[in-house]
């Protein structure tokens, strides 16, 4: 058994622990059953950490099963991305990959078994009528006129369904349970429907497909799953899960279904179908757009597998529905980045500073640490020169902001890793726009306090105007402006038009940023946040290379 962090433990671990202790099961066997209809998202990460995590902890097994009974949505691309994302998170399934369609013949035979027991019938009501006949929570349902068909008639009609003798939607196979059951799920649920679509894996060999309710429990039983863990929406379906297994007389152990609450993340959509709509509407560039809550999007954004797992373990598993704040997720990557990201100086909104008491050609190499607390991360050279850039926001024309540690006329400020400068006078164009700030510097203050003991508040970053790299900054914001998207009618009405904002600026001329070996692929820019670093593809032929800094997270949780 692996050592588990306290917060990783949850009620499902306890159930399994008891089942092992009481010898109800010899070995725990879970499964992760994605539908290959899109890329995995952060909600799936929670289910993955639970299913694979339990198997790891109790030396059990976890299957990967593609729940691929919808021929219209399955795709090889999705299947491959799902496999890749699970492995990237650091998990591996037991043995071969399973597919619900592996059991398509067996499932068909189990359906025949139910018909032979008088427990299933072919219904020719339209889908609308089936819905109408089903009743409501307050009103009991009504029997379909096709419910009393003989077994022989049902066997004939079901094989006609399989042979393509019906049009789509004109017939389905239903379980014969109880149209007045207090549980709507038990009011003769649909077991098979007709779909004339080419399946990405089994082609056109079948035109009838089992529903999730019918196939899931049987696939679990065939694979010897001991604990079938799913989200709370399936709580009601548990009775049906057990009804089907009890009535098909399965000989293997009867798997037990347990439910936990799904992950709902503020300002985030966790549904493959809806995420696909964002792509189709060109709101994002694709499944791995850094704004997407997909595993591949988070990876591109700069999240590590460890940080995603840490998040899943921290939020825990319970039966309580909740909306998790985004800052929870961000905190998990921030603590990793704080330790591992080298610091880089860059200015986003540059304004030139000219140092009056330096000769025009003056440049000076200053050795600076890459990380304030980790000397083993080494040092680098930054160039100090007569002309430098600072961020315009670090300067204020009025003295009102002196408390905010800004540079103002007549006030001194420290340049990070360098000298103290004092703003003397400004140059403006005819429209009154600021062109540059003339400053004097104190040559005795290179990384030293002034000798006369005067106190300097504020440290700002800067970049040499003689040697710098053209830089693009990409700032990502939430994709949506509404925090609880499960409560809105149309999520597309709440898309944030400013989910990506780009700026042009400059960064220090750091050889490692430009290196083809990608020596630095993430960094911290003081006050701005943690960034991934990419070399621009577009500008490879231009003389000045461009670096793209894409923000992973801010340095601190922003105050709302
Ligand atoms: P989606 O709407 O994104 O397709 P789904 O539940 O239909 O979600 P599946 O591919 O069928 O997706 O899900 C595979 C597994 O992942 C299921 O066991 C499901 O319960 C789990 N899962 C999906 N979304 C979440 C979530 N938000 N939180 C926790 N588990 C989830
Ligand atoms: Mg689904």
General description of the model:
The strands form seven sheets. A seven-stranded mixed beta sheet has the order 12-25-26-27-23-24-13, with helices on one face. Helix 2 (42-57) crosses helix 11 (305-315) and helix 7 crosses helix 8 (237-247). The mean pLDDT is 93. Strand 18 (412-415) and strand 19 form a beta hairpin. The protein has 560 residues and is α/β, with parallel strands linked by helices. 25% of the residues lie in helices and 24% in strands. The radius of gyration is 31 Å and the shape is elongated. The protein is built from 13 helices and 27 strands. It starts with 10 loop residues before the first helix and ends in a 7-residue tail after the last strand. The chain folds into three domains: 2-264, HUPs (Rossmann fold), CATH 3.40.50.620; 265-340, Glutamyl-trna Synthetase, Domain 2 (Glutamyl-tRNA Synthetase, domain 2, Orthogonal Bundle); 343-466, Beta Barrel (Ribosomal Protein L25, Chain P). The longest helix has 16 residues, at 42-57. The site of adenosine-5'-triphosphate (ATP) has 16 residues, from helix 2, strand 8 and helix 9.
Write the topology of this structure.
Layout: H1 11-21, E1 29-32, H2 42-57, E2 61-66, H3 76-88, E3 98-99, H4 104-116, E4 120-123, H5 127-134, H6 151-162, E5 172-175, E6 190-194, E7 208-210, H7 212-223, E8 227-231, H8 237-247, E9 256-260, E10 264-265, H9 272-280, H10 295-301, H11 305-315, E11 323-324, H12 326-340, E12 343-344, E13 346-347, E14 350-355, E15 363-369, E16 379-385, E17 387-391, E18 412-415, E19 420-428, E20 434-442, E21 459-460, E22 462-464, E23 468-476, E24 500-508, H13 511-514, E25 522-525, E26 529-535, E27 546-553
Parallel strand pairs: 1-2, 2-3, 8-9, 10-11, 12-25, 14-20, 18-21, 23-27
Antiparallel strand pairs: 4-5, 5-6, 6-7, 13-24, 14-17, 15-16, 17-22, 18-19, 19-20, 23-24, 25-26, 26-27
Helix pairs in contact: 2-11, 7-8, 11-12
Bound molecules: adenosine-5'-triphosphate and magnesium ion.
């Amino acid at each position: 058994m692996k050592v588990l962090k306290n917060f990783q433990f949850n009620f499902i671990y306890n159930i399994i622990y008891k089942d092992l202790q009481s010898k109800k099961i010899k070995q725990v066997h879970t499964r992760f059953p994605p539908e290959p209809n899109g890329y995995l998202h952060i909600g799936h990460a929670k289910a993955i950490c639970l299913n694979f995590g339990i198997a790891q902890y109790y030396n059990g097994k976890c299957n990967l099963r593609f729940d691929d009974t919808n021929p219209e949505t399955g795709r090889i691309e999705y299947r491959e991305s799902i496999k890749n994302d699970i492995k990237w998170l650091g998990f591996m399934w037991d043995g071969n990959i399973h597919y619900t369609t592996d059991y398509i013949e067996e499932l068909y035979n189990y359906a025949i078994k139910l018909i032979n027991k008088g427990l299933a019938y072919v219904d020719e009501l339209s889908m609308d009528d089936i819905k109408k006949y089903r009743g409501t929570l307050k009103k009991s349902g009504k029997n379909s006129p096709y419910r009393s068909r003989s077994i022989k008639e049902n066997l004939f009609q079901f094989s006609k369904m399989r042979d393509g003798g019906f049009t789509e939607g004109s017939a389905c196979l239903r379980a014969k349970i109880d149209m007045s059951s207090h549980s709507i799920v038990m009011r003769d649920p649909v077991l098979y429907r007709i779909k004339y679509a080419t399946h990405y894996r089994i082609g056109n060999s079948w035109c009838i497909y089992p529903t999730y309710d019918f196939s899931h429990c049987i696939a679990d039983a065939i694979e010897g799953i001991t604990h079938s863990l799913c989200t709370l929406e399936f709580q009601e379906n548990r009775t049906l899960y057990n009804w089907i297994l009890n009535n098909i007389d399965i000989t293997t152990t009867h798997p037990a279904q347990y439910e936990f609450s799904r992950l709902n993340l503020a300002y985030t959509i966790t549904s493959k179908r809806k995420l696909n709509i964002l792509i189709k509407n060109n709101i994002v560039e694709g499944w791995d757009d850094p704004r997407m809550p997909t595993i591949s999007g988070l990876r591109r954004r700069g999240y590590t597998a460890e940080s995603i797992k840490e998040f899943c373990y921290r939020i825990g598993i319970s039966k309580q529905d909740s909306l998790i704040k985004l800052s929870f997720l961000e905190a998990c990557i921030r603590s990793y980045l704080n330790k591992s990201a080298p610091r880089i100086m860059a200015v986003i909104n540059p304004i030139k500073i000219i140092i009056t008491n330096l000769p025009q050609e003056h440049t000076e190499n200053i050795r600076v640490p890459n990380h304030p607390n980790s000397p083993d991360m080494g040092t680098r050279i930054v160039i100090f020169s007569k002309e430098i850039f600072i961020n315009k926001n670090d300067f204020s024309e009025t003295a009102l902001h002196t408390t905010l540690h800004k540079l103002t006329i007549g006030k001194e400020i420290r340049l990070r890793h360098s000298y103290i400068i004092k703003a003397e006078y400004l140059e403006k164009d005819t429209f009154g726009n600021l062109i540059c700030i003339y400053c004097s510097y104190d040559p005795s203050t290179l990384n030293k306090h002034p000798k006369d003991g005067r106190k300097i508040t504020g440290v700002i970053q800067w970049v040499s105007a003689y040697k710098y790299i053209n830089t693009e900054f990409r700032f990502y914001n939430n994709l949506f402006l509404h925090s609880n998207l499960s409560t809105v009618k149309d999520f597309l009405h709440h898309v944030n038009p400013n989910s990506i904002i780009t700026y042009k600026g400059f960064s220090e001329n750091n050889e490692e940023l430009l290196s083809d070996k990608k020596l630095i692929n993430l960094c911290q820019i003081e006050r701005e946040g943690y960034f991934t670093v990419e070399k621009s593809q577009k500008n490879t032929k231009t003389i000045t290379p461009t670096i793209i800094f894409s923000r992973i997270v801010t340095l601190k949780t922003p105050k709302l």
